[in-house]
Amino acid sequence: MSDDEFRYLQTEADQLGVLPPLPLHDRFAVATAGGRVSGIRWGAQPAMTLLHGAGLNAHTWDGTLLALARDALALDLPGHGESEWRDDFDYRPATNAAAVAEVLDAVDAGPQLVVGHSLGGFTAVALAAARPELVAGIVLVDASPGLRIGDARQVSEFLAGPQVFGSREEIVDSAIAAGIGSDREAITRGVALNTRVRGDGTVVWSHHLAYPPQHAPQLPDISTPWTGLTDTTVPVLLVRAARGFLTDDVVGEFRDRVPRAAVVELDTGHNVQEQDPAGLAAVIAAFIG
After folding, report:
1. What pLDDT digit, counting tens, does each position of 159-198 carry?
2. Rounded-to-10 torsion of CA 184, 11, 285, 29
3. Interacting residues of 168 by C-beta distance below 8 A, sequence separation 6+
4. Alpha-carbon Rg of the chain, whole angstroms?
5. Integer Cα distance of 253 and 146 in angstroms
6. What's residue 182's pLDDT?
7. Across the strands, what pairs with 38?
8. Which segments of the chain are extended strands (E)?
9. Cβ atoms of 245 and 147 closer than 8 Å
C-alpha cells in the first residue's frame, strides 16, 4: 500500500464531526508462522483489536475508530491488505485466529476487546476458544457461528466476479450494483485502499480471496464452534445489521446459546462499520461503559 494510505482520514474525521488533531496512527507488522501479518496501531496502549470481514482490510474500521477515539489495533487478516498471502489458501477462522494470537503475543498489549466483522467475527470466536487469556470481551458485527454460507451469497458472488478491471470506478459501479453499499464516496475510498494499479493501468484486488487456486472455494470455510462463546464468561455483544446476513432464526439461536450476550440492531447493510461508523462506535462505547 502506498505511503499515503491515511490520506482519507481527515476527510472522514470532518464528515464524522471529529475534532482535530487526528489520533496517533502507524502501520506495523509481525512475522508469524503463516507469514507476515500487518495492521494499523491507533494510539499507544491498545485494549481493543478489530478484525475485518472477507475481502476487506484494516481500513474498513477507520471511521469507527475515529468516532470511538480509543487506542486499538486494526489488523489485516492473513491474505488481506498488507498481510502476506498464504500458499495453502487457508483462511479459515481457526487459522486466522492462530495468526492473530501470534500478533497479540508479539505486541504484549494484554487481553483485548476483540471486535470482528463477518469473517473477522468468526475469527474472534475461534480466538476466544483457542486463547481465552487474550480475549477480554467480544463484539460480533453481523456474524454468528450459526450463519450459513448461503446467507453470505452477496459476498461470495461479488468475489466470484471479474478479477481484473479497467479502472477503480468500474469496481465502484459493480459494488453498488451488487448492493455492497450505496454511499459512492465511501465505496470509492474503500476500493482505493483495497486495490492496486498494475503497470498496464488495469486494477486488481489486494486480497487473495479474489484469486483462489483452481477448484478452491471463493470464500473460506467459515464453520466455527460455539465454544469460544459458550465455554467462556467474557462479555459478548452482537451487532446485527437490519439488512445484513443474520436471519431471525440465526439470531434466535444466538440468543438461546449465548443468553448473557447483548444484541443491538443497526439500520445498515452487512458492512456496518462502513455504512454507520458513528452508530457502531456509539454501540461499542456503550458496551465498554
Report:
1. 777 889 999 999 999 888 877 777 899 899 999 999 999 9
2. 90
3. 188, 191, 192, 195, 197, 203
4. 17
5. 7
6. 73
7. 29
8. 25-32, 35-42, 48-51, 72-75, 112-117, 135-141, 164-165, 195-197, 203-205, 236-243, 262-269
9. yes
Please provide the DSSP assignment of 129-164 as one string.
HH-GGGEEEEEEES--TT--GGGGHHHHHHHTS-SE
Cβ atoms of 37 and 95 within 8 Å: the answer is no
| Alpha carbon distance 276, 220 (integer Å) | 26
- Which grid cell sits at 289? 461503559
Question: CA nearest 28: which of 12, 13, 46, 54?
Answer: 46
Q: pLDDT, tens digit, for every residue of 203-241?
A: 999 999 999 998 887 778 899 999 999 999 999 999 999
Q: Give bridge partners of residue 106 from the DSSP assignment.
A: none
Total Cβ atoms within 10 A of residue 57: 26
pLDDT band at 31 (very low <50, low <70, confident <90, very high): very high
145 backbone dihedrals φ, ψ, rounded to 5°? -55, -20
Tell which residue, 101, 78, 102, has the closest CA to residue 91. 78
For residue 48, count other CB atoms closer than 10 A to its CB.
Answer: 24
106: exposed, middle or buried (Cβ count in 10 Å: 0-12, 13-18, 19+) = middle
Looking at the annotation, which residues are catalytic? 118, 142, 270
Which pLDDT score, from 0 to 100, does residue 3 have? 52
Give tens-digit pLDDT for 251-283. 999 999 999 999 999 999 999 999 999 999 999
Cβ contacts of 84 within 8 Å, gap of 6 or more: 34, 35, 36, 37, 78
pLDDT band at 25 (very low <50, low <70, confident <90, very high): very high
